[in-house]
Amino acid sequence: MSVFYVFQGETYKEEHAGGYVWSPQLDKAGHRNAGYTMMTNIKEGDFILHNENGKVVAISVAQTDCYEASQPKELSEADTTVKWDNKGYRIDTKYFEFDVPLIATNYKDWLEKHYIDGSAFTRVGRGKQQYMCSLADEHAIFLIEKAISLQKDKDVLSYLKDALADIVDDKESEYDQVEMEAINEAVEESAGHTKPEWSGKREKQAMTTSSKTGRAVPKRDPQRAADALEHADYLCEYDRSDRTFTRKNGKQYTEPHHLIPISKYRDFEYSVDVMENIVSLCSHCHNLLHYGQFEEKVPLLTKLYNDRKDALKKCGIDLTLEQLKSYYR
Prior knowledge:
Blueprint: E1 3-7, H1 12-18, E2 20-24, H2 34-37, E3 47-52, E4 55-62, E5 67-70, H3 73-76, E6 87-103, H4 108-113, E7 132-134, H5 137-150, H6 154-172, H7 177-188, E8 207-209, E9 216-218, H8 222-231, E10 255-258, E11 278-281, H9 283-291, H10 294-314, H11 321-326
Parallel strand pairs: 1-3
Antiparallel strand pairs: 1-7, 2-6, 3-4, 4-6, 5-6, 8-9, 10-11
Helix pairs in contact: 5-6, 7-8
């Protein structure tokens, strides 16, 4: 799941009423435009924050991937300062309007201080001059938290909290409490089992529905995580001598971690929820990958990548070390 930020100064009312976002494919000079091309990156289930004339007024969930579509009639007839070509990009989307808009310029100083290359704001904390932008998770979380603090309507407040939880869960890509309990239970019951082996199978990513927002999200199988820990003999796969502690059943305590974050499942044709992509780590190494400085992650990522790359290829998961590193910056 990704988050985007759209500047709809002149067209918000029409697009909101129609349940979509639309842009031409090229500018009036016939050239590609970064804000229009960005539309093609949006997939079903992505979130979009909507800016109307300097105010963030809504959040929406994409109901479709981006597809080619002619300009809607209501846009061609709208009283706007620009007339667009008819050939364009469209995403059908479900809007949830704020009852209290968020004035983006109120947070200019914070956005300047927390500039992120490739996000929707410039180095001086102002919105980019383009229609659709990618929005960094850190910026999305900050803006939604601020919006939550302003809302009065209980339904709007509830949805924003659920959207925020989805974004945070996706960013962390961690097993939730229910999944961890299932993993620990499976570990406790594994005594006497045959040691699980990698399957090398190519599978489609299993999906489920978010209980918070109803979005389709990738499904994680707790049994596979437990099997991955057993396959690694309950030792840390970065350094088998790293300190662990002993579980009640006598096995060492390590934690399962998707080497390729499951949130990146769209980058691959086949499922990333396979044993070959689940590594066993001590608590220190696991937390380092989630919360440490990038430079300290590199040795760990490099070793795990070299150990797993051939097994991942057999599952149809092919990536470079640089691609893997990019997921942890």
